[in-house]
Every structure is written in structure tokens, then in C-alpha cells.
Amino acid sequence: MSLSPYLKQIFIYPIKSLDGINLKKATILESGALKHDREYALIDEKGKFINGKRNSKIHQLRVKFEADIKLISLSIEGTDTQIMFHLDGGRTALESWLTHYFNCPVKLAQNTLTGFPDDLKANGPTIISTATLETLASWFPNVSVEEMRRRLRANLEIDGVPPFWEDQLFTESGEPVRFKIGDILIEGVNPCQRCIVPTRNSENGEETPDFQKLFINKRRETLPPWTAKTRFNHYYKVSINTNIPPSQAGKILHQGQTISID
Question: In this protein, which residues make up the domain named MOSC (predicted)?
């Protein structure tokens, strides 16, 4: 089968755990992260993230970004509530609104250098293929491809390849796999271990029955021959964590760029 992998979609999530933005292009930071991805995070009084792992109410928050990420519109799913905030000048008001919503003290933290990645050893963009999303969605009758995309929240979506093609981007030995999107050098590191978040509806937080159990069984059954099985101490893993060398800082990813593995 002749493959023509290319970058189909780019997503960033400016506020960790909240809605993302579909971009035509994205700039690489010196840290290897995408500019503005997970730049902000909601922090509680103990300094811990307020996210879907710890608070299911976050699933009901909708956010839209305007004016170069700084101006946001917040609303609550299923209500007419909608309010605008500026992430600089309106931060105190935003924190007050979020404190009331979550019923606990909330601060908005910011990191423009690395953002707030889940994997601190592989803080580049996460990668998944369209075919993988389609396959995963087919395992759950009431979960659409778009809904699966929202649940998994990958940054880069690859098309022109079969399901789980991205499993080629990590090795048995743990040595990174070097590949390029356009002229940008990226290193695949490891399969992404999933948490409780994908088990829930992205808009209301309702849990899909037996999601994790079915996912694990089907992932094991459909593991392609190119997958490094020793990297799976369990099968609740999908998408790839990456690093991008500092030498690539300032380069720009574009939708449609071709992908090649060294």
C-alpha cells in the first residue's frame, strides 16, 4: 500500500483542559511546544491543576478565543450564560467567576515558555491519525469521530495513513524516532497513557459505560504488527508524545505538509 502521510489538522488548547482551536499553522517554541498550547492552566488553592481528572464540572465549560488568544468568551453548556474576559486585564474577574463556578479558589497560571504539558519529558505536540480516530469511534456506537477527537485532544492529526500508523513513532528500546513534518524535525518518544477524561462526554461529562474496558480489549486485538508491544504495560494508550529539538524553534507547521520518517 502506497502511503502519503500529511498534516491534516493542527489543534492548540490555550487553557489546559478547556476547548481548543483548529489552526492553519502553528509556531514551534524553543521548548518544543506549540505557541499558546496549554499556555494557561487553572490552579486550585493547593497548587494543583483543575482538570477533567479531578473535577468533572470542567467538561461543561465552553470557551471561544478571539484577538490573538487574549480575549475569551466563557459559557456553561446547556445555559444562556456567556461572559467575556481578557486574559491579561480581566484576569482577576475571570478568577472570581471561575472560583464561583467550581466552588473553590481558582488562579489562572501562565507559562509562555513550555506551557503546562502532561508529559514533562516529552513536551512536544501530541500526534494521532485520522484513521485511528475513526477506528476508535467505531468501537463506541454513541461516540462520533469528532467527539473522539475532542476527548483525546491531540495537537497534530495525520491523514493518508492506516489506523495506528503513528505507533511507528516509538521503539522497543525507547530510543526516539526522528521524523519530519515539512522541514521540521520531531522526535517520537512514547505512546500516550490515557486518563479518565476520554471515558466522558466532552460536553457534559457523562461517562460512557465500560469505555476503558472496551478500549483496552479492542486496542490489544487491533495492535498492528509495527507496534513495539513492550511499550504497553497496559493497552489504555493511544496517540504519541514527542519532543522537538531547540534548533527547530521559530519554524512553522502548516496544514498539508508532508511527513517523512528518517
Answer: 91-262
